[in-house]
Amino acid sequence: MGYFSFIRAEFRFLLFGFLMMGLSNFGQTFFIALYSEYFRDAFALTNTQFGGLYSAVTLASAVCLLYSGKLIDRWRLPVFAGMTLIGLALACLVIFLAQELWMLALGLFMLRQFGQGLSSHTGMTATSRAYQKNRGRATALVQLGYAGFEGFFPVMAITLMALYGWQQSWLVFGVFLALVALPLLVFMSRFEPQAKERQDAAPAASVDRAHVLRDRRFYLVLPLYVAPPFLLTGMFFHQIVLAEERGWSLALLAGAFSLYAGMKIAASLVSGIVVDRITALRALPFSSIPLILAFASLLLPPETFGIYAPFVYLGLCGLNLGMIGPVSGGLWPELFGTQHLGAIRSLTSPIAIFGTAAAPVLFGVAIDAGFDFQTIAFGCACFVGLAALLAFAAGRDTFSNTFEGGPHD
After folding, report:
1. Is 179:56 a contact under the CB 8 Å cutoff?
2. What is the mean pLDDT of the chain?
3. Residue 203, CB-side half-sphere exposure with 13 Å CA sphere
4. Cα–Cα distance for residue pair 103/109, rounded to 1 Å
5. Least confident of 48-52, 54-58, 73-77, 271-275
6. Could you say which DSSP state residue 362 is in?
7. First to last CA, the chain
8. Helix 250-278 vs helix 239-246: crossing angle, to nearest 10
9. Under CATH, to which class is 209-396 assigned?
10. Which of the pair, 400 or 207, is modelled with greater confidence?
């Protein structure tokens, strides 16, 4: 089934996943960072203090996600989606009302938990478990919600801040989420495929989180699953240092990010088709190739590609992230079934979040220790290459394979 036919047949539920992914941007770092100066000024925080507060609430949210994320397996989807959106609306209202530092911390924690954590978790988990034959296409489409809203949200925030002020803009967000997004998405969640469709979508073997932790394939694919967010967060966080070292102007770097966004969208759509044809597990090792090439481009002398160097590097990064989206969306249900998918994703997502929280610090330590980006990129390429070999081994290790030595239940 092609994309257009699939969209026509499943438009309402795909739109639910698309919008849930898009609304997760309220809790994403790039969006919260737009307000960082206002937060620091209002609460008399230094850059270090605000960074420490933000890292603390991010890690706290990741820990809570281990428990809150698995509730999607137990609650009906309209209830879980509704509670997530209520929490996100309340997060916006807490920041609007914040007069003390503890209220800001609570609001940021709620944004990370209900936005970055549970909104994206809801959209991806619900979509992944609803489809089997078209799971790759479905996850590719709903992940475009994140990319689509990513371009719109900064413009929206800056406009509202100019019209009403930074604090009042959060009131607008909260009212919108409560009065528009909440009833709309709860209604749309009722179109989740049921009965025969869900039965067809579920593999015969469906195991719980404890079984996953005993399956060696989980540990074989995990390094490549976390490599892109971990490594690219570290690289992007220190991109100004990279640009200075490579001789790239900020204008050139900004232009390259446009190619990055375009490659990410195009690769996601193509990857969705590939996953449906060859499975996510088989596609996973190949998704590493663009990332290895991106790091390899930094091993060459800066003049090798001239003014096109940042376009080569960021274009390959976008290609990797676009490919990995549908692959990661289909990987866990392929390996472990859909009955406990929420619990499994609430285990893997915090691992990735911990990695993204640690990456800026670890890369900063390496830079301060005197390592240049050629050396860092070489280490990153070796890590990805090794992770790809482990993922390839997991693909060959299809049937044997728990630490207990027996097949799946």
Report:
1. no
2. 88
3. 18
4. 10
5. 48-52
6. H
7. 32
8. 110
9. mainly alpha
10. 207
DSSP string spanning 150-210?
Answer: HHHHHHHHHHHHHHH-HHHHHHHHHHHIIIIIHHHHHHHHTTS--HHHHHHHS-S----HH
Q: Flag whether pLDDT at 8 surpasses 70.
A: yes
Question: Across-strand partners of 215?
Answer: 402
Tell me the per-residue pLDDT of 158-187, one tens digit each, with 9 for 90 and over.
Answer: 999 999 999 999 999 999 999 999 999 999
Sign of CA dihedral 206, 212, 215, 217: positive
Q: Name the segment(s) of the chain with CATH classification 1.20.1250.20.
A: 3-201, 209-396
Token digits for 292?
Answer: 């290895």
DSSP 220-281: HHHHHHHHHHHHHHHHHHTHHHHHHHHT--HHHHHHHHHHHHHHHHHHHHHHHHHHHHH-HH
Residue 291 · residue 391 · CB < 8 Å: no
Burial 98-117 (b: 16+ CB within 10 A, else e): beeeeebbbbbbbbbbbbbb
CATH 3.20.20.140 fits 3-201, yes or no: no
C-alpha to C-alpha distances, 150 to 167, 349, 352, nearest whole angstrom: 21, 20, 20
Non-local (6+) Cβ contacts of 399 within 8 A are 407
**Backbone dihedral angles phi then psi of residue 402, each to the nearest 5 degrees:** -110, 165
Per-residue model confidence (pLDDT) at position 185: 96
Assign 400 a pLDDT band (cuts: 50, 70, 90).
very low
Q: Is the pLDDT of residue 397 over 80?
A: no
- The tokens for 368 are 């301060």
Q: Which amino acid is at 296?
A: A
Question: Which residues touch 402 (CB under 8 Å, ≥6 apart)?
Answer: 211, 214, 215, 216, 408
Q: Whose structure tokens read 């005197």?
A: 370
